[in-house]
Amino acid sequence: MEVIQQLLGRLHPIVVHLPIGFIVTGLLLQWFDRKNNEWGKIIAIIFQWGFISAALACISGYLLYIGEGYSFDTVKFHLWLGVATAVFSLLMFLRLVNPSKVDFLKRLPVVLISFSLFFIISITGHLGGNITHGSDYLIEPLPTSIKSFLGIGPENHEIPILDEKNWEDAVLYADLVQPILNTKCVSCHNSKKDRGDLQLHEGQGILNGGENGLVIEANDPENSSLYARLVLPLDHDDHMPPKDKTQLSKDEINIIKIWIANSNSFDKKIGELGLKKELFTAFFQKTNESIYPEIEVASASIDSIEVLKARGLHVEPLSDGNNFLKVSCINSPKFSDNDVRLLSPIFDQTVHLDLGKTEITDEVFELLSQFSNLTVLKLNNTTITGKNIEKLKGLEHLKILNLTHTNFDEEQFSILSSLDQLQTVYMYNTSISKNAKDKIIGTTEYNFGGYELPISATDSIVY
After folding, report:
1. pTM
2. Which residues form the DUF2231 domain (predicted)?
């Protein structure tokens, strides 16, 4: 009996379209026949079948509701309006066939019943779609600007932010994991819409898993589908979120990994888990202060930029409202010291320069000293040792320097430390000893890493 109930309930998506067809057809025929009144009997029969099919849709919908575990709050308006659709279809049939048998039908204008039916069936269908696809399904394709103007859109969850002073007091799950899931996953996995029978809006739903079983294996993120699906290639069928949805950042993915690797506790604070601060810096409150120079420079020649692009360099504006440029050699692994001279037309405009994974050597520092407004410099994965790095001392705006995966010589570390304009230096996988690290003075932050981030499908994008 239960199997039959489930089968009839799951026929609802098919059956529910029948009353829509009958009622809309009947309403259209009424409109076309409003002057001649020649099709009354045919229209009455159509509304008779509209009532029968609507009643069947109500029954199948009710069976689906009790069989699939929907909450009553989720379906109640759709259910009662479905019943109202059947009732008004019956009223229309009786009104057209022989209203004299029922006194109050004589006083009911046909046009009133028609408009009521059209309104009720439209709302009923919309609510049914919300149950099936989610409340934001209809408006999801609209541009954000239009959604904001109309004051509509999906529930707005806040991006997780930690207080840098009290970051160890934050609860890893409540303050980071769940807010990340709320912003990127819950729209498809909640109590009203649980794709794959998976609910991620609260802890118990996460522990329950979905139609394919548990999504978390304690202390084993690699075998936990909640994490494993996040790091699959973007075009993989099992990648989550789907590629047309907003993806998690590398830092957000890493938080999910850390949480699972630490027994997926729902109440432990970060400090209790003994985790490093570096893992959470991406979630600290950002200030509005820009690291880039607050000066005006002339715009670079379009022809000069086109020449550089033709040589395989990626050149793009830093932002609207200024003439600064970002330059990357990601497509030019053979880029060498002499090639830096190609950038001479845009020396003043370049504030962000990525020379990582190229063939530059220590000779490049002489040329780099001519980038008067350079603020971010990436020299990672190159053969530089730091010789001549003192040439950078005259770059007053230089704030961030990336030296990870280089042969940086510890003998040059004291010179590097004298570049007090620097705010952050990244030196993961260099040969700097613990003794040298202990002698660091000044306000510059030296980041030696020692932690891992998952590789994202976007890390190897070629522009």
Report:
1. 0.41
2. 11-131
